[in-house]
Amino acid sequence: MLMNRQSKLSIANRKFTISYVLLFLILTAAGCGKDDKTKAPPAVPVTVAEVTSETVPVYLNYVGTTQSVQSVNIYARVEGFLIERAFKDGADVKQGDLLFVIDPRPFEADLDAAKAQLAEDRAALTYAREQVRRYKPLVDKDYITKDAYDDFVTNAAEAQAAVEADIANVTKAELNLSYCTMYAPFDGRIGRRYVDVGNLVGAGGQATELATIVQLDPMYVYFSVAERDVPKVLREQSKKPLTVGIILPDETRHPEPGIVDFLNNEVDINTGTMEMRAVVPNSMEDILPGQYVKVQLLLSEQPGAILVPEQAVGDQQGQNYVIVVGKDNKAEFRNVKIGADYKGSTIVEKGVKVGEKVVIEGLQKLRPGMSVEPKPAKPKSTNGPAPTPATGGKQ
């Protein structure tokens, strides 16, 4: 009986102890929960930038192709052996620089023969004219017949015609001789030679292509304007000459702006575009014919444009927004209407004001009303690719 009673007491003591521990844990957990509810969450560190205002140029962006203002193929215009090449392949040449020489000796001989024939026929003409002068009084006095005198006149006319033919032959021989020496017609860059020294060129009267010269400064840039942009372009062109900026294939900006000098007189019905052309100075010769480049057609300037960094703009279900740091460093979500991009920033047409601070890093972890710890953005490096101007249209 005593053992059973002690066992019962031991079991009761254990139950009491377990109940006490459970109650303590419940009360402790409840107390902790109450403390958590009253404790404010820590501020979220974010990087911010100030909303700014600037006069922004508005561009239309297109893809263009470059073309030389002048391009000339150098041909052999006479038949002969090539005896000299006076340039290196791919070299820059100046107007009047010697390029090729064809053996001139046969043509010098032809010229000498033509001049000799001219001298002979001029002597004959002089004699024929003297005969006419001498016999003119005699025919007037009937000392010789009219037919005999007419023969003298005819001989003089034939001699005159022979001299004129000889003069033409001399001119032709001089031209052929001049064709033996070829010079650069303008400043430019010559390509590779197509024929080596020692080869026969111009055989059978067929012109032989020897090389090609292209002018590099200035350059033409052709591009096509979308039909929707044509009215805007025509309006601005009527006010002032339009200028273009050129972005090279390596994304660097060509330092010299170009001027539009040609607008086509119709819109291509097949492509819905209008062709335009700009003349671009190329003193550094960093543009070559046949390249694809980006063309930024300056359309107008937008004063007082409100700018925020591109990374400050988020998108949610097709709606653009920014997060503004409001009073007491609280996150405030703003729906915004955005415009073009400009130098790494975005034009905001509606939704923010100049001087407000927007979050540019940490947008994803914020909710409306959350406390933030704003830190200013680091200054941008001045080194980098060419800035992207504001755009009013793309192709």
Kindly describe this structure.
With 395 residues, this protein is of the alpha+beta class. The protein has helices spanning 2-38, 105-140, 146-178, 230-239; strands at 44-50, 52-68, 71-76, 80-85, 92-93, 98-102, 181-183, 188-190, 200-201, 208-214, 219-226, 243-247, 258-263, 273-280, 292-309, 314-316, 319-325, 331-335, 337-342, 345-350, 357-361, 372-376, 390-393. The strands form 5 sheets. A 6-stranded antiparallel beta barrel has the order 2-11-14-13-12-15. It has a 4-stranded antiparallel β-sheet with strand order 3-10-8-5, with no helix packed on it. A hairpin with a 2-residue loop joins strand 16 (314-316) and strand 17 (319-325). The termini are far apart. The mean pLDDT is 85.
The first-to-last residue Cα distance is 102 Å
Major sheet? 6 strands, antiparallel, barrel
Gross CATH architecture of the largest domain: Beta Barrel
**Oligomeric state, counting identical vs distinct chains:** single chain
Shape: elongated
The secondary-structure class comes to: alpha+beta
Keyword list:
alpha+beta; six-stranded antiparallel beta barrel; OB fold (Dihydrolipoamide Acetyltransferase, E2P); 395 residues; four-stranded antiparallel sheet; 4 helices; Elongation Factor Tu (Ef-tu), domain 3; conserved putative lor/sdh protein from methanococcus maripaludis s2 fold
